[in-house]
Amino acid sequence: MKKKVFELLTLAAASPAPVHCLLPHSCHVLQESLLSSASGYSNYRGILNWCVVMLVLSNARLFLENIIKYGILVDPIQVVSLFLKDPYSWPAACLIIVSNVFILAALYTERRLAVGTISEMTGLILHMFNLTSLLIFPSATVLSVPSMTPVGGVLSLGVYTVLFLKLYSYQDTNRWCREIRQAKAKRLTRSYSCKYITVHAHVTYPGNLTHRDMYYFVFAPTLCYQLNFPRSSRIRKRFLMRRLFEMWMVPTIQNSMKPFQVPNHLIWLIFFYWFFHSSMNFVAELLQFGDREFYKDWWNSETVTYFWANWNIPVHKWCLRHFYKPMLRKGINKFCAQTAVFLVSAFFHEYLVSVPLKMFRLWAFMGMMAQVPLAWFVSRFLNGNYGNAAVWISLIIGQPVAVLMYVHDYYVIHYGGTT
Amino acid sequence: MKKKVFELLTLAAASPAPVHCLLPHSCHVLQESLLSSASGYSNYRGILNWCVVMLVLSNARLFLENIIKYGILVDPIQVVSLFLKDPYSWPAACLIIVSNVFILAALYTERRLAVGTISEMTGLILHMFNLTSLLIFPSATVLSVPSMTPVGGVLSLGVYTVLFLKLYSYQDTNRWCREIRQAKAKRLTRSYSCKYITVHAHVTYPGNLTHRDMYYFVFAPTLCYQLNFPRSSRIRKRFLMRRLFEMWMVPTIQNSMKPFQVPNHLIWLIFFYWFFHSSMNFVAELLQFGDREFYKDWWNSETVTYFWANWNIPVHKWCLRHFYKPMLRKGINKFCAQTAVFLVSAFFHEYLVSVPLKMFRLWAFMGMMAQVPLAWFVSRFLNGNYGNAAVWISLIIGQPVAVLMYVHDYYVIHYGGTT
Asked: Which letter, b or e, does each residue of A46-76 get, where b requires 16 or more Cβ atoms within 10 Å of its Cβ?
């Protein structure tokens, strides 16, 4: 009998393969696992939620304890004391209030230029003088006023740097408007179609040169000026509340993590979310500012260049529009222009760290300039997930090293050379 | 002069809005931030890489120290001693070797059925006897042999449970084949088209009833039998090496994390990756088994049901094909069928924990059954990212609680009631 079974089996196995399957119950298909890079799958929204849940849960106990003991953790007096050594002199706040002078100077110069009472050259000189003062005046103040704390210094220099970039964009854009107006007068230009629909009244040059328009731009979460920003149709109250809640919650979580000696890198990540997502979206929602692209998907960057071009979109947009592209138009080659952008970025990084700490060490400058060879190395030798891992490692290791350099030197200077 | 400026400005502002923009330099577009749930964006591959980099970096120091001190961390003697109290009696290994008897019993029963020397009823009874023995024999051995360690017990019971599911699928599928053959003989069935192209010879029933085919199925990373599994065209050596490296690396990392008191949940995540991605893909690559869907995107699950249906695809596929769908065909309603699946799953969870620990506490059983009301609650009250967070929290909190229950009771029994 056994022989019979085998005969049958051999017969069946040897029979020619049919073009159709006999079995309707096939339940396997040729396919890759999702986590294999070959699958091309990339939806990991859940992993992000996991990170948030782990962060919240791992701090929940301490967080609750702190709330029970001390109430809300963001102690207003402690926050204020960060800015003031002497509560009767508010140098940082005064400095920020004074910045209005520079804003109005830029506006009035533009008004003169619009009606032609001053020449283009005079206007340019006035603007350049105004912009240079915007960098020199606050740094001189920070360096000379002894009651200025480092945090107050960083904050006011930050405000002035943002204003510098904004007002540079303002004069550039208005000059372009005048050039178009002139070209139009000579019937040389074609009309440009409008890409967005807006419920707000449409403004044309020089109708934009109002205080209202200027201050809208100053407070709007962007560094690039344009007439008629795209506007959202209404303020979504729930969205606003969620962002406000995050703005309060995130520093609280961060505070409650201090005892854990959390890596510097994690603090930077949380800061990124707090500033670029919660705060900027909050301000934008309040101002009905429509363009919410404050960052792109830098977490997926496979090259260093991609990271720098996507983590801080307002600055990247400014660099591209007012620095990189004008250079290309002047015939400078791509690599030189890119290096120049990194140089300017390195200058501002150094400026924002050295002046408030009153310590000139060039670590921040060198850190930024080191990105150029690093970018070359990563793009040359690594790609895909390996490139991504290299970018993460450079962030995780690079930042704390740079910060440590300054902290070390700051302690050595202020508390004596203990090491 | 100031008046003139204002007149001009008012004029410009009041002029009717043109349909085209005067300014070609518009650089803002109405859009949402990527992290806003409204954007619909979900590519977070980089976040996954970040988790891996953080895991590796945060353990690198300890990892290197351990390697320098002790060499490779997976000490073979230590591993072996987990399975054996007495190295001269290898109960777990013996038990696994004996399992061949059941495999061959199933194959020979099928051969008899194929040629019709035994009736369908006799075959069914033989199979049921074989399958029942597959569950009773190893548990009786584990409970009666004193030299069996808990790890050895879990491992051998795991092997037997997998075999139980595989052989159940084997007899079910072969019976379907016979039914089709009979229907074909009566000219009642249409032919089914084949969905995949294979380079291997196509086999038809009963040509599949060979030792080679049976053992291929036993070792293949699936629980559902089918004739002519989809096969990959070749063994990719680099893929194989990467998975092998991971299979060695992942437990090493896990080992090096022990001193950190890492949450149980993280160990489960790492185990998931090690077993369902590295090991299963390794075996599949070696056997040129084409269907690599061992898990779906459970990390994005917004309901508990979605999680259970997607984290362990081999078991889910088996339940659907051999338990849930046959029940539906018999006219049982959906909810009852689903609850029955959870009941069977709860039984096996309890079986795999209670027997090796020789402790009957029903925690695992109740844990699984608690999923039914939990699933109802989450799907009723939460959705989107909130649902996802709820699933994560139930995983993060639920697993350690269940494990703790057993560990606590195990210590109380074996080391006296100290608490």
From this structure: bbbbbbebbbebebeebbeebeeeeeebeee
